[in-house]
Design a protein that fits this description.
By secondary structure, this protein is an alpha/beta fold. It contains 23 helices and 7 strands. Helix 9 runs parallel beside helix 11 and helix 21 crosses helix 22. It is globular and about 80 Å long.
Amino acid sequence: MQRAESDMRAGGGGGFFPRGRTRSADTVRLRKRKSALYGAAPGAGGERGPDLIGENIYLVLFTITLRVLNCFLVQTSFVPDEYWQSLEVAHHMIWIPRLVQALLSALADVKLYSLVRHLENAETAKWVYLCQLCSWFTWYCCTRTLTNTMETVLTIFALFYYPMEGSKTKSSCKYLTLVTLAFIIRPTAVIPWIPLVLRHFWQEQKKADLVLYSYIPVGLVILGISLIIDRVFFGEWILVQLKFLKFNVLQNLGTFYGSHPWHWYLTQGLPVILGTHLPFFIHGCIQAPKRYRIFLVVVVWTVLVYSMLSHKEFRFIYPILPFCMVFCGYSLKQLKTWKKSAITFLLLSNLLPALYTGLIHQRGSLDVMMHMQQLCNSSSNQSWASVFVMMPCHSTPFYSHVHCPLPMRFLQCPPDLTGKESYLDEADIFYSNPLKWLNEEFYNGTLPTHLVFFSVLEQEISSFLALNGYEKTATVFHTHMPQGRIGSHIYVYARRVK
């Protein structure tokens, strides 16, 4: 009995060894197996290969490579803000901001994997990681130079340090710093974090210390830095975040750029950005442990808050997509049958919209600028060429794709800050009667050498084009789904030089 007990202790399992095997050989084999197992586990003392930002270097490099490829395979336009609020002021380094955004998005993907690995296990983390990488909307947005994209990246980074139950990476100062930084970049970034911060405050035993040593110092430092930067560039003391909230929330001037019914995010917004992940998200919400209910609260809360604003866009709820991916990944992990079919379905059903929206849909407004750039190739062209873009305002970029001081005019659409109910911007006046507007505008004025407009406008202004000697020189595909003022193609007309 003593020998058997000692053998059980030595082997760590059964107490008897089969004939033909020595005790020492089996003990060594078991120890090797144990070392390999624990060496692969996070935080173990054994060998686990080279690390980078806390994860296996090959995982990090693969993710970065994929997002860089992602960057080059997104050649379409989404919204004007990705150019007019960012790249236009950095047009000589045009690819660098996008590559930096791709790198940050890749690191956020890895951090999402790390978060779930620490909260659950590597098995669950890999399914969340898969769902994140194959999301068509993430592919479509994550390399674009939008504040919403940076907001999403910082949200994932902050979530990694958020004090969730069972978290091994929690840090109040770190997550609050990242949340505050996201707020500085885009004030609406605070919306998803309201439930999380309130939960943290409620569960914190030393609430006074949390406020005095975390909330106040972090807020004052980050906001102070933001004020100083804005003071340098604006030349006066100004709180940009307050103006943002006043314009978009208090005055609700965003409705000037379009409005949707209150249920739009529930019936269209969230289902579209989730795509074929939607059934897995619903299943994951049912199957996930109770401690993840706070993530579901974040999703529901954010959708409800944005639903109260009239102006709605898909990109506004992009920051809640990583929360949804946690539930989707948990759903895949729980599947016992049809798992391979589900994975294949997810990959194929997201690949097609990702490639279509990234390479085909709404690419004309970028491609047409390549034609305009040809006017910059010689100094002689620059001396006489001029362009008038007769498209809905901000349909195309400018310097970020032309890279020369080519005289260009665009239809203007500044919001009305005076409160006039009958206010119409230049674009609205133009589209109410394009032919009349053109005849009056250029009655005694100098005609531009080139006109750029959507195909739906051609027939209506055909007499003006013929009378003034304009000829079609380029036809650029834009979209298979034209609507309203947006045509399927963009035409470039050049005036014959007499």
